[in-house]
Amino acid sequence: MSSVANSEAIEIDAVVIGGGFAGLYSVHKLRDDLGLSVQAFDNAGDVGGTWYWNRYPGARSDTEVNAYCYFFDRDLYESWKWSERYPRQSEILGYLSHVADRYDLRRSYQFNTQVQSVVFDEENERWQISTDRGQVFSAKFLIEAVGLLSATNRPEFPGQEDFRGEIYHTARWPHEGVDLSGKRVGVIGTGSSGIQVISELAPVVEHLTVFQRTPQWVVPSRHRPIDPALMQRIKDDYEGYHHDLLYSVTAFGFPESADSAEEADPEERRARFAETYEDGGGFQYMFKAYNDVGTSLVANKAATDVIEEKIRSTVTDSAVADLLVPTEIYAKRPLCCDEYYETYNRENVSLVNVKANPIIKLTENGILAGNDEYELDVIVLATGFDAVSGNQLRIEQRGRGGVSLQDKWHERTSTYMGVMTAGFPNMYMVYGPMGPFTNQPPVHEAQVNWIADAIQHTIDAGASTLEASPQAEAEWVETCDASAALTLFPKVNSWINGSNVPGKPVVNYFYMGGMAAYMDLMNADRANGFADRYLTDGKPATVLA
Question: What are phi and psi of 180, to 5 degrees?
């Protein structure tokens, strides 16, 4: 399909969509290492990706920063000095801005630009990319680094236009900040963003009302300065640390347990969970103490028993504690936040169970939930994201034969390795659907390196296109579903399976076989010369001699 004559399009080797961790490294890798001409776009005003937008009070990483960063340049890793174990949004944004400056990446970007459509021109075997500025670019390669958690999920409530106060979404917080001191504030949502903003706002506002549909299992973060001894150990074995990071289950950079909680002595098990709880960290609690919290109901129950004890010993009002203890198993993205449960002991904090008392509508003065109206000056929507596939499906995308990605993914997303989708030649996704359920930045790098190798292979082979075969894609989806079925995650509804967005297919969106196994699969593709599972110029690929 061809929508614009080639003479009207600006020709470029590669287009990159996205200005976060994945997009910045994609530009660097393709432009500076492969020598391609690259044009990148982001609808934000500068680099940062999700960290450009998520400026709400309390916003910070919940991944230890020694693993939440780039590894491709050792000098960058060692010269940038992080202040905290879990840095705040401003520090992460400053880091990404520093990276953009260090490698002169902004000169390849056009900000404040929304890519509206990407259409494969079969006659010329190039992608045509159209922006909201009326521009059209023609590119041989297309890299979509649009973010796993960046497409906002903003529900509309009846009467919303009647509310006389202010409404903010955590993922689109005003850059100039908002003074909420002395205000009556309502927060809707208790996911990762919600628990952070709740804990941060409670000491500032006149009164905070939390509207909770589903309680979460939350462990402390234990914010503290980054450990100099840890950084020295990494410095002493930088390559080894990076290798072990990628060849682990989660790629979070901490030692993962080889022990089974299900098989452990109950008293020893409880003591180890309690010790890990006190050290802090969500993924640490799920994977550092024992290796089967996400796969064994016995281990999972043992883990949540300790958290429940902490909730009930912390929250002084037993009725509030009852509302804060989840009835579901511990099989969502593991959350961590300091002082979360302590917040509910404050006299200026109220908790509303909207499962029992649903939000009926917004009124002029606040929120009507059940039979009660809660008077508010400000409403904060901590309602999260249309995760994984959301940003890709907000762009009109058409591959071979004019088939739209929206139609192809109507019933469920399907990719090969989370980086390619059949029928969309030379289009690559960084951390796309059916990718590994892991820490993101190190995986971004690994995937972009793989994408760069696939592009170089295409160039060296003298081919016009490379794409995953339909069979490879179908087999990969089966592999992902089989890996998820071995875990407890499918037993609970969350953004991990798309259930947080009305009308979105509720299916598995991840490969849960671990990062080490995923690395082995990527390396096998390289060693095999991108054959067997791929089509070159629309035909079965052959090994590059």
Answer: -105, 5
